[in-house]
Amino acid sequence: xxxxxxxxxxxxxxxxxxxxxxxxxxxxxxxxxxxxxxxxxxxxxxxxxxxxxxxxxxxxxxxxxxxxxxxxxxxxxxxxxxxxxxxxxxxxxxxxxxxxxxxxxxxxxxxxxxxxxxxxxxxxxxxxxxxxxxxxxxxxxxxxxxxxxxxxxxxxxxxxxxxxxxxxxxxxxxxxxxxxxxxxxxxxxxxxxxxxxxxxxxxxxxxxxxxxxxxxxxxxxxxxxxxxxxxxxxxxxxxxxxxxxxxxxxxxxxxxxxxxxxxxxxxxxxxxxxxxxxxxxxxxxxxxxxxxxxxxxxxxxxxxxxxx
Length: 308
What we know:
Residues 87-287 form the Alpha/beta hydrolase fold-3 domain. It comes from Pontixanthobacter rizhaonensis. The chain is of the alpha/beta class. Helix content is 37%, strand content 19%. Strands 1-9-8-7-6-4-5-3-2 form a 9-stranded mixed β-sheet, sandwiched between helices.
């Protein structure tokens, strides 16, 4: 367990809505639960498409559609105008699934709760592409946003694989001697492509979405020519000194919770102001269940983190 300065358990018991939705998710099944099926089916599939943005967003937000490195980007501004902060949000999906329909309400809730503008890169995925196009797009989006808002008002956020991309982008920029964002906000981040910590096995049966063996297959594909141990693929292996303040949000019924704890302690030891917020009974990316007590609490904490 992480030290008391780094760690905070927000609720000792999951809400009824959280428990109900975890049961629904378990009954529905997951695209991330069968390593053999992923190996057999994904390389020959028809490339899935990003879930379209709901039409209602055009009334709720000021919407910008643009491209970076030949890949689509969607920016949502509050209806009142551009936010004081700009959050770049990388969606999850194991790097092999595009934007889910569930991501759109999550991003909308973030805009409404924080008042920030949010840009969502719709990046190329594996195995049809390797990591290079997605990383190039991420770098280009950052430069575009920072040129207008300034680094001190840019935060990087993302869920699962997207949490990896947010942290990795900051590490890559630091390693290249470039400017850094003001805040990092990983949601249930995937921090080790190889899932090397055996303690994660103790959580595997509780996780209704992810499976360690399946995740490891995807990790090898995403790491590519870097190898799974490279710190730009697996931020858990990076030197974390010099990164901006970090707030990590993590459910306890998530195999990634073990690495989040290790990462949080490592960041704190490296001198990075870091807080890990955990939610009992929270499934992987629980904050996508935007109507739950836990998700609403997370959004309020994100706003407070930006306002610090």
